[in-house]
């Protein structure tokens, strides 16, 4: 499904609250796979030791995106910056959340912790509810798939590194999530 119609299908399914058939029967919302946003091949070798205990929430601090087309471009831009400019093996985030309410696969369930980055700058404004719901759904999916421990911890990027990420407004929100731990 790699055509402009695929974007419409993802959007339609998300708006209806329906999921695309997954490989297993976990209650997961659709995740836009790497092939749909035309990711560069990853050269990373490290695999995820499941289930993971820690989820780190960040923001890209760049422009937000609110349509599947603009979010696909934004994910490509993030990956290009990480791979071509920084010289890393792939986009560093496991998943990226767009203001369109969709989850975009980065490295997927594949690292030491799960990094979820909201695309946009959330210093002075909060992400829309559909983006926050997408993140919560992704976390529930991770538990259901056995990729996250049931007692996983959510941390803000600033809790683990000297940074302003995930932005003041998003940080205030994740501090209210049940699994948040400072």
From TrEMBL:
One of its GO terms (molecular function) is N-acetylmuramoyl-L-alanine amidase activity. Gene3D superfamilies: Peptidoglycan recognition protein-like. GO terms for cellular component: extracellular region. InterPro entries: Amidase/PGRP_sf, Amidase_domain, Peptidoglycan_recognition, PGRP, PGRP_domain_met/bac. Residues 29-161 form the Peptidoglycan recognition protein family domain. Keywords: Antibiotic, Antimicrobial, Disulfide bond, Immunity, Innate immunity, Secreted, Signal. It comes from the Eukaryota. Disulfide bonds join 28-141, 65-71. It is found in: Secreted. Residues 1-21 form the signal peptide. GO terms for biological process: defense response to bacterium; innate immune response; peptidoglycan catabolic process. Residues 40-167 form the N-acetylmuramoyl-L-alanine amidase domain. Innate immunity protein that plays several important functions in antimicrobial and antitumor defense systems. Belongs to the N-acetylmuramoyl-L-alanine amidase 2 family. This is Peptidoglycan-recognition protein.
